[in-house]
Amino acid sequence: MGMATKTISIMNDAYNLLVRHKMKNESFSDAIRRILTKQGNVLEFAEAWKDVSDKDAEDMKKSVSQLRKKSTKKILRIRL
Question: What are the pLDDT digits (tens) for 64-80?
Fold first, then answer.
């Protein structure tokens, strides 16, 4: 069974991103498959927050809490 091919057009910035994420001996098809099928790792996500100070984290939690309260009040007003 032969493998079908498709020609696609992508913007230069998308191409440059793909080139940067493509491994040395990997085809573009293999890179796309790897990137798009990659399962998220909770530890990688947690790593993104490593430089956030405790104070900044608390400030973010307070902001989220305030936004939730405001949106809840707004929803309740709309329903009434």
Answer: 999 999 988 888 887 66
Instruction: Give residue for tokens 């998308």.
Output: 14
Residue in 34, 29, 35, 36 with CA at minimum distance from that of residue 3:
29
Give the tens place of pLDDT for each residue, 30-43. Answer: 999 998 887 777 77
| Range 35-41 contact pairs with CB under 8 angstroms and sequence separation of 24 or more | none
Question: Crossing angle, helix 28-37 and helix 12-21, to 10 degrees?
Answer: 80
| pTM exceeds 0.70 | no
Sorted by where each begins, the domain ranges of the chain are 1-38, 40-80
